[in-house]
C-alpha cells in the first residue's frame, strides 16, 4: 500500500514538474534590453515608408471598405483552417491603435510576437519572418506608422477553433518554429544577394504564403518557397524558387513584382494583387535584389 502511495505521489510530482516546465518554456518573451535601448533611438519616418510597403502592412491592416492604404484600422477577416483572424488596428490612434505604444512594445510585437500586455500574438501575424528584420528597419517602420492617420475602432476578436484558441499554446509553436536569431540581422545594402535574402525572408515574408505547412501551421523547412495552400485553403501559391522560376529572367520577376504582369501576359491576382500594390512603391533596387535572390534560391536552403 505504501509503495502504491509512493508511486502515485512520485507520478503526481513528475506531472507537476513537467507542467511547470512547460508553462515556463511557453511563457511570452519580448525583446531584450539591448534591443529596447536600440529602439529608443529616433527612427526615420521616410525610410520607414519604404519598409511599410516592402512589408505589405496595409495588405492585412487596412480598414475594410475603403482604398486608402494608410487608414490602418484593421478588421479584415483572414480565414484559415484554424478559424478566422482579424488583424488589429495599427494606426496612430492612442486608444484603439498603437499610438500609445513604446518603441520597445512595437519591437516586441513585430519581432517576437508578444503584445504590450505580455500575451502571445498568433502567428497569422508573420513575426517569424519579421523577427529577421534589422533594428533600424523596425525603428523606421515604427516612426512611419506614428505619422499615419489615427483611426478609431477595434477589430473583432479572433474566432478560432479549439484548441487553437488557447493563446498560451502559441508559446509551444514558437519553440518549434521561431528562427533562432540572437541579434537582429544587419544588412549591407550594397551587396545585392544579402539584401535580396533579407528582403524576401524578413520584411517581405514571402515564405509565409509560398511554403507548405505542417498540421500545426509551421513552414516545412525542406520545401520553403516551393508554394503551398493559401490561408483560405482554396487556392495554392506557386513555387518561387529557382526551379519554379526557371523560365523567368530576373527582370521578369522584377517586373511581375512591380506591375503584376507575368512574362506570358497574365495578371497576378488574389492575395498577390495587394502584394504588387505594395511593392510597386518600393525602390527598384530592392525589387531587383529580391528577384536575384529568388532566381538563385534552391528549396531547402537555410534562409
Could you name the key traits of this structure?
Cytochrome Bc1 Complex, Chain D, domain 2; 12 helices; 303 residues; globular; mainly alpha; 2 domains; three-stranded antiparallel sheet; 5 strands
Summarize this entry quickly.
The chain has 303 residues and is mainly alpha-helical. The protein contains twelve helices and five strands.
Percent of residues in β-strands = under 5%
Roughly how many Å is the radius of gyration?
21 Å
* Low-pLDDT residue spans: none
Query: Major sheet, described briefly?
Result: 3 strands, antiparallel
Helical content, roughly? 40-55%
- Count of domain modules: 2
Mean pLDDT: 85
**What's the total count of β strands?**
5
Q: Could you say which overall geometry the principal axes of the C-alpha atoms support?
A: globular
* Category from helices, strands and their pairing: mainly alpha
Summed up, the helix count is 12
In whole angstroms, the N-to-C terminal distance is 58 Å
List the secondary-structure elements in sequence, H or E. HHHHEEHHHEHHEEHHH
**Strand neighbour order, sheet with most strands:** 1-2-3
Amino acid at each position: 500500500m505504501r509503495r502504491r502511495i509512493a508511486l502515485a505521489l512520485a507520478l503526481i510530482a513528475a506531472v507537476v514538474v513537467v507542467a511547470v516546465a512547460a508553462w515556463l518554456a511557453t511563457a511570452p518573451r519580448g525583446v531584450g534590453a539591448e534591443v529596447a535601448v536600440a529602439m529608443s533611438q529616433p527612427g526615420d519616418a521616410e525610410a520607414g515608408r519604404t519598409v511599410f510597403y516592402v512589408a505589405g502592412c496595409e495588405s492585412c491592416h487596412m480598414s475594410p471598405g475603403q482604398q486608402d492604404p494608410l487608414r490602418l484600422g484593421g478588421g479584415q477577416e483572414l480565414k484559415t483552417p484554424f478559424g478566422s483572424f482579424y488583424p488589429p488596428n495599427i494606426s496612430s490612434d492612442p486608444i484603439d491603435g498603437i499610438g500609445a505604444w513604446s518603441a520597445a512594445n512595437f519591437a516586441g510585437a513585430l519581432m517576437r510576437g508578444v503584445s504590450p500586455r505580455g500575451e502571445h500574438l498568433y502567428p497569422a501575424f508573420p513575426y517569424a519572418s519579421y523577427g529577421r528584420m534589422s533594428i533600424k528597419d523596425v525603428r523606421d517602420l515604427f516612426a512611419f506608422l506614428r505619422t499615419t492617420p489615427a483611426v478609431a475602432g477595434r477589430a473583432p476578436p479572433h474566432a478560432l477553433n479549439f484548441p487553437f484558441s488557447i493563446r498560451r499554446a502559441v508559446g509551444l509553436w514558437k519553440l518549434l518554429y521561431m528562427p533562432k536569431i540572437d541579434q537582429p540581422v544587419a544588412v549591407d545594402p550594397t551587396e545585392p544577394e544579402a539584401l535580396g535574402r533579407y528582403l524576401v525572408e524578413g520584411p517581405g515574408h514571402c515564405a509565409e504564403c509560398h511554403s507548405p505547412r505542417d498540421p500545426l501551421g509551421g513552414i516545412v523547412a525542406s520545401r520553403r518557397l516551393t508554394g503551398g495552400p493559401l490561408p483560405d485553403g482554396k487556392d495554392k501559391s506557386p513555387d518561387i524558387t529557382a526551379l519554379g522560376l526557371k523560365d523567368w529572367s530576373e527582370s521578369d520577376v522584377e517586373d511581375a513584382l512591380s506591375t503584376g504582369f507575368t512574362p506570358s501576359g497574365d495578371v497576378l491576382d488574389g492575395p498577390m494583387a495587394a502584394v504588387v500594390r505594395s511593392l510597386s512603391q518600393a525602390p527598384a533596387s530592392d525589387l531587383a535584389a529580391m528577384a536575384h535572390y529568388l532566381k538563385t534560391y534552391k528549396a531547402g536552403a537555410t534562409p
